[in-house]
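Practice problem: predict the structure.
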Amino acid sequence: MWREYRFRIPAGEPPGVYWYHPHVHGFTNPQVLGGASGALIVEGIERANRELAGLPERLLVIRDQDLLHPDAQPAKSGFVPPVLKDAEGDILNTGTGTGKPAKDLSINFVPVPYPDYPPATVMVRPSERQLWHILNASAITYLDIQIMVGNQPQSIGVVSLDGTPINENGMARDRVLWVDHVFLPPAARVAFIFKGVPKGTRPRLITRSVDTGPAGENDPARPLASITPSDDAPEQPLLPASPEPLPASSLTWLGGVKPMETRKLYFSERPEDPNRANSPTVFMITVDGQTPAPFNPHAIHPDITVHQGDVEDWVIENRSQESHTFHIHELHFLLTKWDGVPVDEPFLRDTINVPYWNGKSEQYPSVTLRMDFRNADTVGTFVYHCHLLEHEDGGMMGTIQVLPTSGGPGTGAGPR
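Answer:
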């Protein structure tokens, strides 16, 4: 059956990378593993950051899939713990994760399978600066993106995370955050300045190893693509060279708004049948004070109700021994605390990892997020969930209803 969907992009939607995929509860993981996903770019990021004006633009979508060769032994030229080297002996990564990955990866549908990891090829003009968008469209695989030249990581200039420029709402104009790697949990996106490489170099795009916990998946270091500088590289589309700046937001910067309420939610797991060794795992995300239970798609009432115009702080705890990725539809949030300690991270996200609990400490790992319901378009019922889709399908999802307010957008006023 064919269906046609039409979407209106709001005029004030932040420019950057978004994405789409099936969201049928219980079937999301296999469908996304099968490649049912795509990127969506809201144009105009050069209007938010003049450093990007006129740059060539490139999109890389990284997906995961079941192992093509699950019984294969690691290649002799592969991993040498704790250092990953390529065939010529250049160090690719100093991460400690090795061995068979939980899933294979692909880049723009070019598989990079275990155990040999034959990389895809990305051709670039010599020494040309470009804007790269990278989307982690994996169902369950964490990425830690890095560009290596020889034995050295190359700095990349981050300009956007999760579809939102990092110089939003009066922050430093034309801000570029230069780093040597970017951590991308499933569903996260980044846009960065690739500063260019000269002829004769052999750069590689890799993912570093990620420790997802004793109950998690194995995400070892591995190459994704060889970057080939060549005069014959295909031309990439160019961003406008003389963009008109985006208008300033009429809303107070989220970090300067006092939250109206603080809520605690927590990730947890349990075996469906404690008496069976191979019992399926039940995954849950629970509002503190409610009874832990997996997501019920037939529930009549939402798990959380707020009003348009509200700003709240949500503390998200992880009470399990594997990492979980918190994601919410329809809005972005600000990270204000990590394990209860204030952080200065003045940019917005819609996806964030919550590290695993070690099973011993009295304090669970947590993030504190300032949730922004001031946008007039953020009204209705939608979901928040772990974006490891196996976990979401297993019940780690909840619903939130945002009710309209009579006090006008952004005021937080109205009947309660």
